[in-house]
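Example pasted here:
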Amino acid sequence: MTPDKIRKGDARRKRGNRTGFTTGACSAAAARAATLGLLQGRVPETVVCRLPNGEDTVFAVIDGSVEEGAGLAHAGIVKDAGDDPDATHGARLTADVRILRRHAGEVVLKGGTGVGVVTREGLGLEVGGPAINPAPRRNIADNVRAVAGDLLEHDGLEVTLSVPDGEAIAKKTLNGRLGILGGISILGTTGIVRPYSTAAFRASVVQAIDVAAKQGQTSVVLTTGGRTEKFAMKQLPELDESCFVQMGDFVKAAFATALKRKLPNIVVGAMVGKLTKMCQGLAVTHAWKAEIDRDILAESAREVGAPVDLVEEIRAAETARFAAERLATLGLAVAFHQQLAKKAIRSLKDRYPGPYHLTVLVCDFEGHFICRVEEEDAQ
């Protein structure tokens, strides 16, 4: 589960290759440090944490405290996401560890302030429980057990994970859309965050479609970004918010999941550039995967009556936007985009065949409606 990866964090952070740590890894380090504090009477300033991938990593610990009489210790870790544009970069992940008398061997995990609560099925987590994924859940417990020693022979430990700013951070993510309310998710299958992780984004697309299906939705609206999603929501106000999924560049992953879940209606919301790449049949529409096919743009312009000289200008242009804007000045915007949408539908249905109905909604660069094309219009 990776909803915290959907939105970008601080836009000023620059692209780079430095790896960072997941919320799960930071929570595990905080829990381990607090457990050590409970046993030793003092929380260490650094702690070695075993990540889910087996690596041992040193974390700096903040806000360490021990209440010996209460059998309680507290520790925090500041998340470093490396060069990934993660909404949770800089978040404080804290753990309060308390002794559970006469609960031998138990390690109980709870969600505190700023950790989201699961309110919908489809996430692989208990509804009503904290949004702590299975891999970090195991890793946190393993780290606690690794240092608890003899204590667990007669008592247990309760670990409450919190993120003081979690509720505010969650507003930068799509957690609410997925039914995770009140905070962020504790995530991470390896413990490591890799810059601009396409795997994380792809996983979030798959999960969002799974959630829609689990909710009994019969339609999924796949959009290429925030602007197209906002546009699609205006066009389809009758649909629940869970139906709308920002697939970004991951066309294949989105369609494959929708087909697997047997969703009968698929709607695509796009602008001219991504629409053209769908005509090309690209599984991933990111710029680094393949350039836009300007011949598709030029031929579509010709087919709707654009002058020959403009058709050749479009064929030589660097962007799809050039074609869209020039054709708009000639009053051909709707016809041009309809032509592209029909080609996109034929391409998508050819590559992802199945018993579903496909609709394409097209908007301009300001998010204004241009056209709606149904599957039957493309035949």
User: Anything to note?
Assistant: Confidence is low (pLDDT under 50) at residues 1-15.
